[in-house]
Design brief:
The structure is a homodimer. The first copy, chain A, is about 75% helix and about 0% strand. Chain A is mostly helical. The longest helix of chain A is centred in the middle third of the chain and has 27 residues, at about 110-135.
């Protein structure tokens, strides 16, 4: 989200379409996030506060709230806040490694306050998420969120283990994405409502989100994504666009990934683009969202709530169209 | 703990003195730790496994188990394992920042597998701690551990905020130590048994532990501590030995902390030592342990269990004698 714009377009669409209760609950989530970070009688929450103020799409909280529905109450608000705290923790920790100067157009915690504070801030956000849920005795929510947080860390470890390995195939890539991204979306919907079809909806939308994010890393432009094209390549992360492109241009499996510089990474991005692989991956993501919506149809929501959840799913896709 | 020695001396003393149940439970903790890290059907737990295998004094698990007593059962073993996972997470994350090559005589995760994997491994250990407790529905334990984890992160943030600030006084230093170290000791005893005097015992022993750790950073020798003398100084961390020494040698408040190199840090260590401040800090730590033991006397334990807990407290001190 660009600084200055209060709410990104897909979210606005959902808010416009919803009854009054959703914006009210989302406001309560923001209040809870602020209270989770501040209020210790010392100015330690600065970095976490900066991360919070930088905003974000709040996709995961919105999924929690929509799935819980109008009667979700404070429990849903807490769960929505806790999942966003975990998400923020991963962003802050990612920045420690990437040494990225900017996120969402604002300086990262790592850039403005150093790696040490960013690391501790991430730990703080993660711990606060569990403190928030356990203070209220939300036992089921703690379990769901702890499992999702384990998946996130496993996904990160898997990605590092695979770094610079050009033999990584689609299956392994999808496994990583399920751990790294889809698990938290699945957790979000499950926090709102316990239903197997709904869980599948969350997982598919989350997977689509990661696929499209990986496409965006290849296409840029940096002005829109806030990072240079080919950041994944420079990081050694082999994603589906490269895997799919290499099926059409096998020479891509021979590139010197560890030796790439930013200019070289841009060239590889171009080479991936000309194979047409990006359209394939995008189509794949749209299929996932379509499948997710079909699952959603069997999750027993009334037509209005189902429509709102479909709007969130569409929001994930629109972001990249 | 040096590699090769299975159990460090203070722990051996407690084990020798205890009935058969404690070694059995500690063995179950090791099994639980191993199971928490491995068993995902993929070799991702390597780094976490290496951290686990490097051992440690297992002081916190021992406090949990002793406070819970012989009837503590699986709940106490889980709590003891979870708190050690949180402790291990902080060690792994510390290594990310310190770029320390060794811990306990073995290569750190950061050194052997890179900062990225170390960061994710720490997140994994932290998340696994909450997953372990929540899987069993230990609601009270989740709350205690989440609060302690928040304190740890706050302590780390406070320390970074204070970095290179030679005006830091004793009170602020103690506040940091309570967050960074004492909170987890307090959590350990509370996980075993809910008692206000016992909590105070845990907090005092934890505080003494940190004070003595900070003395050890000044005294070395590196062969024993596994790190160079004056590591805290190089890190910009102002600790009680320096604060107390500067009261006797005010010139110490004028040193160029950001400009110190390892040789300069050794010199400052010598200058701190000649003031006699180290003996003062050591005496302070012994007083804390003595106060902790007095509190313990009112916690309602039978004489045998009280004696074992006192042995653990003595173990903390003996480590430095």
């Amino acid at each position: 989200m660009a600084p200055g714009s209060a709410v990104p377009p897909p979210v606005t669409a959902v808010l416009d379409a919803s009854q009054r209760w959703l914006p009210v609950r989302l406001g309560e989530v923001e209040d809870t996030l602020r209270a989770s970070i501040a209020g210790w009688g010392e100015p330690l929450g600065e970095d976490a506060g900066a991360t919070l103020a930088a905003g974000g799409k709040r996709l995961r909280p919105m999924l929690v709230l929509l799935c819980a529905g109008e009667d979700g109450g404070p429990e849903a608000v807490r769960a929505a806040s806790a999942i966003e705290l975990v998400h923020m923790a991963t962003l802050v920790h990612d920045d420690v490694l990437d040494e990225a100067p900017l996120r969402r157009g604002l300086p990262t915690v790592a850039a403005s306050s150093g790696r040490a504070r960013a690391l501790a801030t991430g730990d703080l956000l993660l711990s606060r998420a569990f403190a928030l849920l356990s203070e209220a005795g939300d036992e089921r929510a703690v379990l769901l969120l702890a499992d999702a947080a384990v998946s996130l860390a496993r996904g990160e470890l898997a990605q590092r283990q695979d770094a610079f390995d050009l033999t990584i195939g689609e299956e392994r890539y999808l496994h990583r994405c399920r751990l790294k991204t889809a698990a938290l979306f699945e957790c979000a919907v499950s926090l709102g409502r316990d239903d197997a079809e709904l869980r599948r909806f969350g997982a598919q939308v989350g997977l689509a989100f990661q696929l499209l994010d990986d496409v965006l890393d290849v296409t840029g432009p940096p002005e829109r994504t806030g990072k240079a094209r080919g950041t994944d390549l420079l990081d050694g992360t082999v994603t589906l666009p490269l895997i799919a492109a290499a099926e059409r241009d096998p020479g891509l499996r021979e590139i010197d990934l560890p030796g790439l510089d930013p200019a070289g990474a841009e060239e590889v991005c171009e080479r991936i683009a000309v194979t047409g692989a990006l359209a394939t991956v995008r189509a794949r993501a749209l299929d996932l969202v379509a499948d997710g919506k079909r699952r959603l149809a069997h999750a027993g929501f009334d037509p209005e709530r189902r429509r709102l959840l479909e709007l969130v799913a569409d929001g994930v896709v629109q972001r990249y169209s």
